Task: inverse folding
């Protein structure tokens, strides 16, 4: 009994010690749990902050991607993104429009094959894609570390620059040719007047039945024909002074078609006329503009030896220079088109591809349009036809047709109050280029 009682206090003490150790361990565990809970909460907060930062970064990256895509698609320069193997990975709308293919059609194709299709190459010289003139170049594409990761092929549309350079070269070339032609024409015209005078005197003095009188008449007719040709040469070299005014568009175009009827009736031609309601009148010299229209219509008909569609349209032109409105008068045919090798020379005097042509028709057209302070744009595709557009200044769209005409740019600045107006013979030379 005594031993049991003795052992009992020891066991109680051990039990108390065990409970104390358990309490201490539980307290330590509670502290660890609290610390762990706090750490987890801290990590949850940090993770939430990281997720929010990542979400913002992804949003920023997506916004930047969309922005860069918008910039790429808005560029007027065509862009092909090509990898190190020469395979296209991406293209923008400008490149797709120039190449006539979608992004899906261009992807995974070799850039060299895509360029070889329309006969293009990587060079800065002007190259034609359809009606556009482009320069094609290649620049390296680098990643963030500066290492090359492919390259970009750039299509720069230089159509307008090319046209302006071509116009400048043409003006210089025609100015030199015009000076020479003008001098020659004057030298020839002077003795022609004497020949015409003597031929008229012979006709008067010879009897009605004399065969010599018929010869004199033929001489006179030949001299008159040469004089008309020389008049055209002088018109080209020094455009006539003319007073412009408002002229109703529909009658002017209709009369021009009638003047070209002799050529139109030779082949089956369907004529389509489209005059915009916003352009009822044209600011021009009516006789000279008829000359331009007749020459263009005859050229268009001659380009359709088997017949076709002749379209004449007149609409307001979107001005390239603010506050300078203009109209676009277009003569379009569905004929054989112009050989690209001849396109830069079609306005040169005496250049023609026709056996009976003298090559003055379009040269005169160019001269008259220049005198009107306008410009000419020609688009042509072999086998499909040609479109010749004349862009003329239009000081007041829908203005008063009775307004007093202003003096043309090419009038003499000597103060002449009565500018001379010449009516050019419209039926003298139909086989021009």
Result:
């Amino acid at each position: 009994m005594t031993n049991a009682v003795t052992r009992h206090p020891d066991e109680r003490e051990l039990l108390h010690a065990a409970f104390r150790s358990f309490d201490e361990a539980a307290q330590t565990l509670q502290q660890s749990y609290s610390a762990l809970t706090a750490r987890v909460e801290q990590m949850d907060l940090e993770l939430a902050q990281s997720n929010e930062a990542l979400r913002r970064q992804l949003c920023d990256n997506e916004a930047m991607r969309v922005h860069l895509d918008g910039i790429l698609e808005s560029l007027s320069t065509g862009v092909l993104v090509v990898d190190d193997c020469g395979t296209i990975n991406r293209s923008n709308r400008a490149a797709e429009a120039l190449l006539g293919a979608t992004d899906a059609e261009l992807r995974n194709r070799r850039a060299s094959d895509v360029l070889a299709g329309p006969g293009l190459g990587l060079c800065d010289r002007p190259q034609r894609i359809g009606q556009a003139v482009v320069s094609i170049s290649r620049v390296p594409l680098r990643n963030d570390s500066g290492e090359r990761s492919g390259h970009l092929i750039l299509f720069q549309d230089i159509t307008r620059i090319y046209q302006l350079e071509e116009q400048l070269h043409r003006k210089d070339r025609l100015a030199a040719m015009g000076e020479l032609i003008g001098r020659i024409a004057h030298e020839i015209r002077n003795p022609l007047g004497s020949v015409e005078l003597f031929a008229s005197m012979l006709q008067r003095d010879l009897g009605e039945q004399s065969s010599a009188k018929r010869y004199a008449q033929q001489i006179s007719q030949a001299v008159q024909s040469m004089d008309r040709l020389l008049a055209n040469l002088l018109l080209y070299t020094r455009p006539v002074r003319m007073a412009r005014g408002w002229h109703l568009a529909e009658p002017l175009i209709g009369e021009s078609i009638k003047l070209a009827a002799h050529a139109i009736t030779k082949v089956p031609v369907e004529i389509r006329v489209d005059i915009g309601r916003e352009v009822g009148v044209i600011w021009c010299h009516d006789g000279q503009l008829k000359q331009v229209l007749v020459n263009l219509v005859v050229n268009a008909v001659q380009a359709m030896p088997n017949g076709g569609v002749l379209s004449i349209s007149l609409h307001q032109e979107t001005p390239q220079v603010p506050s300078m409105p203009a109209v676009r008068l277009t003569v379009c045919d569905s004929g054989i088109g112009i050989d690209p090798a001849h396109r830069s020379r079609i306005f040169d005097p005496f250049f023609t591809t026709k056996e009976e042509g003298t090559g003055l028709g379009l040269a005169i057209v160019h001269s008259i349009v220049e005198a009107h302070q306008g410009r000419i744009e020609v688009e042509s595709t072999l086998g499909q036809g040609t479109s010749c557009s004349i862009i003329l200044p239009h000081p007041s769209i829908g203005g008063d047709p009775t307004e007093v005409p202003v003096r043309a740019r090419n009038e003499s600045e000597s103060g002449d109050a009565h500018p001379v107006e010449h009516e050019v013979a419209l039926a003298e030379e139909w086989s021009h280029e």
Remarks:
- The domain at 75-157 is CATH 3.30.450.20 (Beta-Lactamase).
- The chain has four domains: 1-74, 75-157, 162-237, 245-393.
- Confidence is low (pLDDT under 50) at residues 397-433.
- The two ends are 144 Å apart (CA to CA).
